[in-house]
Amino acid sequence: MGIYLNSIQDGLSQINKAQAQSEIGKKLGGVSLYSYAVTNKDNVTNSEFYKALSSVSTYSSAPAFATYPSVPDLPWKVKPNKGHLSVSTNYANYQLVKLTGHEIRKTYTDGSGGCQIIDLIPETYSIKINDTDYGITIEAGKVSSTTIN
Question: Where does the chain show beta strands of DSSP type E?
Answer without folding.
Answer: 83-89, 96-100, 105-108, 114-120, 123-129, 132-138, 143-148
